[in-house]
Amino acid sequence: MQQTSARGGALRALAPLAWVGPAVALIAVVVVWPVVVMVQSSFLKISRFGVVQGGNGTGNYDKLFAEPDFGGVMARSLVWVVAVVALTVLVSLALAQLFNQRFPGRRFARWALIAPWAASVLMTSIIFKWMLDPEVGLINMLRRDLGLLDALGGADADPLGSASGAMPWLIFVAVFVSVPFTTYALLAGLSAIPADVYEAAKIDGASKLRTYWSITLPLLRPALTVAALINVMNVFNSFPIIWAMTHGQPGYSTATSTIFMYILKGSDIGESAAMSVVNFGMVIVLTIVFLKVSKWRTAPA
């Protein structure tokens, strides 16, 4: 009897594995195993054709850190993430507050907001590249008609031809495709805030600005934290926008670490793997720093 009872208890203890097991197995195959292979590859000497030629110790990392453009690429990656995520959050906060109000055409406006999110990021990037074409780009034609551009075809009509002109447009496109998801995430957070909280603030005579700052933002923090964190990871690993619009050129002046990693793959797979490990580490560091700064464990007051 005791053995039967013990066996039944063991089976009950293992029962959750039937539900958790598939998810753990999927994570192991899709996430953990690729990371292990990536780290292993970073210590191997691999030809450009993918042939493993033996161990290379820390040679790939030494070569990577000696790259003259490495420091600039990493600094640019941080600027890229901070600029895109900050602008995305600010624009999304405003749009979420707007779409949370009742006004004619609100449903249509919400549907329209989904369009940049539903479309392929690569397709959106290519469309913007065409619109910025120095000869026939729609945006350049508008600039010329408004007197902001002397003529088509010149260097002034090619904003993607220089880092100073390209980076603002790359950031704009990244914000454009990131705003819909972030706005809807914040809308969900706004809809969860109880209406009686605002009624109490109104009775106490709080202004709209004071109400937003002291009630809406603190109660919106969980949704804001999740949305911003997802944006941090997505933007840091973003590839299609920069690759489709500039290929990281001229030189590496518009390349982020992800673009730099892809370019290195064409000449040295081992060094590219080392760059992948650095990228992975940077994502973890950025995530930890963000969670620390956002104080996500602290409950809203």
TrEMBL record:
InterPro entries: ABC_transporter_permease, MetI-like, MetI-like_sf. Residues 74-290 form the ABC transmembrane type-1 domain. Keywords: Cell membrane, Membrane, Transmembrane, Transmembrane helix, Transport. It holds the Pfam family BPD_transp_1. The keyword Chloroplast does not apply. Its main location: membrane. It is found in: Cell membrane. The keyword RNA-binding does not apply. PROSITE patterns: ABC_TM1 (PS50928). The chain crosses the membrane at residues 12-36, 78-99, 111-132, 169-190, 211-230, 273-291. Belongs to the binding-protein-dependent transport system permease family. This is Carbohydrate ABC transporter permease. It comes from Streptosporangium jomthongense.
